[in-house]
Design brief:
heterotetramer; A: 257 residues; Glutaconate Coenzyme A-transferase; 10-stranded mixed sheet; two-stranded antiparallel ribbon; 8 helices; C: 282 residues; alpha/beta; globular; CoA-transferase activity (chains A, B); CoA_trans_fam_I (chains A, B); Glutaconate CoA-transferase subunit B (chains A, B)
Chain lengths: 257, 257, 282, 282
Amino acid sequence: MMDYTSTEMMTIAAARALANDDVCFVGIGMPSAACNLARLTHAPDITLIYESGTIGTRPEVLPLSIGDGELCETALTTVAVPEMFRYWLQGGRITVGFLGGAEIDRYGNINSTVIGDYDNPKVRLPGGGGAPEIATSCGQIFVVMKQGKRSFVDKLSFRTSLGHGEGHNSREKLGVTTKGPNMIVTDLCIMRPEPETKEFQVVSIHPGATREEIIEATGWDVQFADKVEETLPPSAHELEALRALNARTAAAHGEQA
Amino acid sequence: MMDYTSTEMMTIAAARALANDDVCFVGIGMPSAACNLARLTHAPDITLIYESGTIGTRPEVLPLSIGDGELCETALTTVAVPEMFRYWLQGGRITVGFLGGAEIDRYGNINSTVIGDYDNPKVRLPGGGGAPEIATSCGQIFVVMKQGKRSFVDKLSFRTSLGHGEGHNSREKLGVTTKGPNMIVTDLCIMRPEPETKEFQVVSIHPGATREEIIEATGWDVQFADKVEETLPPSAHELEALRALNARTAAAHGEQA
Amino acid sequence: MARIMTLKEAVAELVRDGDKVAMEGFTHLIPYAAGHEVIRQQRKGLTIIRMTPDILYDQLIGMGCVDKLVFSWGGNPGVGSLHRLRDAVEKQWPKPLALEEHSHAAMANAYEAGAAGLPCAIFRGYRGADLAKVNENIKSVTCPFTGEKLAAVPSIRPDVAIIHANRADRQGNVLIEGIVGVQKEAVLAAERSIVTVEEIVDDLAPPSPNSCVLPSWTVSAVVEVPGGAHPSYVQGRYPRDNAFYKAWDPIARDRDAFKAWMQENVMEKGPEAFAAYAGERA
Amino acid sequence: MARIMTLKEAVAELVRDGDKVAMEGFTHLIPYAAGHEVIRQQRKGLTIIRMTPDILYDQLIGMGCVDKLVFSWGGNPGVGSLHRLRDAVEKQWPKPLALEEHSHAAMANAYEAGAAGLPCAIFRGYRGADLAKVNENIKSVTCPFTGEKLAAVPSIRPDVAIIHANRADRQGNVLIEGIVGVQKEAVLAAERSIVTVEEIVDDLAPPSPNSCVLPSWTVSAVVEVPGGAHPSYVQGRYPRDNAFYKAWDPIARDRDAFKAWMQENVMEKGPEAFAAYAGERA
């Protein structure tokens, strides 16, 4: 078996959750790597959409921004941003949306706005961007984030996007009919919402990671499912595809510099 | 002086009212002829927009329908119909809109919907199409219609589009800030709204037409302005341009048949 | 993913009695071949939706397929009335026809809202016009910032949208070009869709990255029907058959002439008859 | 009709102290040269509007031109924070910065509504999100047909919109191509507009009849500034200078380093400096 990093494991675990007929609203960074890895391995026909307007894009290298030229050049079509948010996202055509942020709580609510008070913040973060509506319009949401006590928190400073609210049927009470966050993939484990309470619990631990590490890296009293699996390690095929993608990306960004 | 028909006089009189910097929302038939005649004579840079989405179009021949291929081929750009009605018409970018219909009243309200009762009509007309919003969104409205007792009526069966309502400040009371119908050109004369009451009155009579003819062809007690002019007859240049346009059109439509 | 099918299969599977059907096309790209297949398969009780119903809708109405028409302008452009539409409204022949009548702006906004997944559209419309008095689907909302009263109409959500397009690729991605009308919106707003195209090609080759393209996964069925828009037209392929539009007037004026024409030219024909009108790609 | 002007003239005439200014560009086509001219001419008290404020807005804020920012995502894409933005919000340097914060969906809809001449936009948004609690410009309307509560935001109506585009013709008609963002909407929503372009050509030659084109009469000024989008990019001409975006991070972290960089690269330069980045048309 090949050596691999925890970031590689995280990306590969996220990629595996995507199906060939998914239509993904892709964010920059980890989600972009996971989605394109899925496309380059088991899901060749997956549809990738970036909020810059590019639909059905097949980048050879990963974009640094959400609107790199590569995305437009390899897309089936590129639409204006108002159309993207109206016809494509709000129109209910996206099966999987990806989110990340500075903070996430046990119900998958996410903060990417401020740390501290909104009007007098300790840290002013970039803000939600598309997140508030991605969180409610996509069929389901996958979250990809490195796990740590400062990001997996008991209480958010600000709720940028809705997860499962206060748990249970919080989404239904708000009139939201989509599934919401259905998976969190970290560098240590995979979490899924408990079907009744909707609290995220660990369902699979990556090879080499431990329950203690996960507990230590979580700001709430994290729960484990009755049956916790060990995440399948990356296959040689998955690792090679990911590394080749990353190498092409580094070369392309280096060349431009 | 050349001979000419009353239809030619009507078209030429309407064309003259258009300026080089006007942006016109053009209807099919007479308005299309008038707008293109203006473009081919004194207003070469006039912008013509057809509701099919064609912006800045310069057809060589007159279209039979609002969406003939000629319009798209000679346009600066062609937009989708929702954009046409949202960004271009409702966006307040049109300086002159043209309307016509089966019936018009003394305040320039127009009926193109039904004759008789709406639910049990004597004659079902094509309907308003763009008229309800053209009448209120364009800077001003020109009406081009052949004059007759059955079309210039005392009371409309149905008010498809707003003119000056019941006169005076009817438009303002409805919150409408555009000028509304500001000219009616017929085969006999030109009418303008009286500044106070907004009732249309005859301001110019075409050469050869008489007050008696106009009174006979109007279903209400038509008023004449204090100073009524005689419409300038078509110039040789105007007539030649219009006839050449009509000849090209006939040839083109004949060829296609 | 769109399936590439025959027209007979696509209509049989995707158009059902009682459906709300939008066959769109703004002069350009009107889906005549597909509409004729709906008539041949004798669908009943349809609600047909279109901004500018022309001869095709006249034919559907005259053949008794239709219970209700949702529209904003119904005529034979540049020629005159739709006589089958008038006969149905004025004399209930062959059966009564319910009308839901809007303005173009309302219909265009309602399609846009349907594509956007919204329940309604708002716009500045119908001020001082009588349609709001006879159509209970024209309401209003008040802008919460300015207090302005804006018109509101329900979004259009057809059961099935049927359009004709310039071309598709073998994956079922569709290119619409020229006067694009509300066709993209109609397909995106609909539950199911049929797109007939002039040709199916290996490479869609849209001329601009921003060309109007419907991805395969937004379409139910793609059908190759060369000439399928006749007597309407396809930009760069064949012109509008203006002579046919003029010739339709006397046919449609008379019930028997109409029935005879439909029998001969629709009921006893198939989509392959349209190939005679197809041009070469420019 | 757009006037073809120099950048200095266009900014002097069309951008005024206290204006609401939208310099749009969604990664692609960000109007850096024009933004730098605004800084050089030392405009004050601006409200700057943009979905994705990046380095250019960091520069405007750090140079003290700005009182208020209306935005939905403010960062250095793929790199991290905007340090001048953070310094203004967290430490009021060089002056306090008011924020009006929305989601992308809200901003996109608000531009669309602005272009459409509406006072507000409605959309399905902000459900279960905290932004509505801290932004009084997020309200709601109720659909009169379904009773659904929809989010409402005021339309965006800038005093002046500034964009960079692929090319213009000598009449001032503008072609925007590739990732078109909300630039067309920003110009149509604005009272005045400046469009910088890579080149002014004899024939606009849009590749498709449906290409994204702004007619000359919708634009106030067209200015030829080759390379004017750098370090952003122009599709088919020059790529995004990702290395510059990365290099900006340490410059912007330090107030003195920032001021020195701006003095050398903006205050003492002119739009002609951007020509070094311009590529050939592909």
